[in-house]
C-alpha cells in the first residue's frame, strides 16, 4: 500500500497504518520516498490511457509517500475493504476513504488490487533485502495458525 501525499500532508499516516495493523496484518517493509514521474507512470501503467492519468501522476509525485508491505491472511481483500471505495463520496463511513476523503483524486491511500499487482508493485518499491521475514507470537491468536 501507499500512504498518498495528501494523507502525509494532513498528518493521517499513523492513523492509516494503525487501522490496517490492528486488523492483524504484519508490516514486513516500509519506505518513505518522493516518487518521480517514471516510477509513478510504471506504478499506474494500467491507467495510462485514462483522462485523469496526468493529474494522477502529478498528484502522486507532488510530495513524499510512505510505501508499506503488509503480510497476512487475505491481505489484499482486508486492505481493500479497510480502504473503502475508490471514490470517498461512495466509501462507507468506517473505511479509511469514507472517514478521511472527499475527492476521488485525493483519496489518501493506495492498495494493490490483486496478488499479481501486489508482487509487481512491491518490486517497484523494494529490494528483496528490504522485506523482512519474521515471526510474531501473536499471529496464532489472529489466525489460529503460524505463517
Ligand atoms: P483504487 O485506488 O481504488 O485502486 P483505481 O485503481 O481505479 O482505484 O484508480 C487509481 C487512482 O486513480 C485512484 O485511487 C484515484 C484515481 N482515479 C480513479 N478514477 C478517477 C477518476 N474518475 N477521476 C480522477 N481520478 C481517478
Ligand atoms: Mg487500483
Task: Provide a descriptive summary of the structure in words.
The chain has 147 residues and is an alpha+beta fold. It has a single domain (2-132), classed as Alpha-Beta Plaits (2-Layer Sandwich). Helices cover 41% and strands 13% of the residues. Strands 2-3-1-4 form a four-stranded antiparallel beta sheet. It starts with a strand and ends with a helix. Bound molecules: 2'-deoxyadenosine-5'-diphosphate and magnesium ion.
Task: Provide tags for this entry.
globular, 147 residues, four-stranded antiparallel β-sheet, binds 2'-deoxyadenosine-5'-diphosphate, alpha+beta, Alpha-Beta Plaits
Structure described in brief:
The chain is built from eight helices and four strands, in the order βααβααβααβαα. It is of the alpha+beta class. The chain is globular.
Low-confidence stretches: none
Provide the domain count.
1
- Estimate the global geometry from the Cα principal axes: globular
Which CATH architecture would you pick? Answer: 2-Layer Sandwich
Structural class determined from secondary elements: alpha+beta
CATH topology: Alpha-Beta Plaits
Overall average pLDDT: 97
Outline the fold blueprint.
Blueprint: E1 2-3, H1 5-9, H2 13-22, E2 26-33, H3 37-43, H4 53-60, E3 65-71, H5 75-83, H6 96-100, E4 109-110, H7 115-125, H8 139-143
The structure holds 2'-deoxyadenosine-5'-diphosphate and magnesium ion.
2'-deoxyadenosine-5'-diphosphate (DAT) binds at residues 47, 52, 56, 86, 104-105, 107, 110, 113.
Amino acid at each position: 500500500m501507499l500512504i498518498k501525499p495528501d494523507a502525509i500532508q494532513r498528518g493521517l499516516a499513523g492513523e492509516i497504518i494503525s487501522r490496517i495493523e490492528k486488523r492483524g496484518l504484519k508490516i514486513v517493509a516500509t519506505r518513505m520516498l518522493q516518487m518521480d514521474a517514471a516510477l509513478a507512470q510504471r506504478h499506474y501503467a494500467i491507467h495510462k490511457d485514462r483522462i485523469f492519468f496526468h493529474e494522477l501522476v502529478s498528484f502522486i509525485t507532488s510530495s513524499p509517500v510512505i510505501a508499506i508491505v503488509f503480510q497476512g491472511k487475505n491481505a489484499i481483500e482486508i486492505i481493500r475493504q479497510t480502504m473503502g471505495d475508490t471514490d470517498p463520496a461512495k466509501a462507507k463511513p468506517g473505511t479509511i476513504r469514507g472517514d478521511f476523503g472527499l475527492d476521488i483524486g485525493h483519496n489518501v491511500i493506495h492498495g494493490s488490487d490483486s496478488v499479481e499487482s501486489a508482487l509487481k508493485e512491491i518490486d517497484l518499491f523494494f529490494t528483496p533485502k528490504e522485506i523482512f521475514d519474521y515471526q510474531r507470537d501473536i499471529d496464532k491468536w489472529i489466525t489460529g495458525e503460524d505463517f
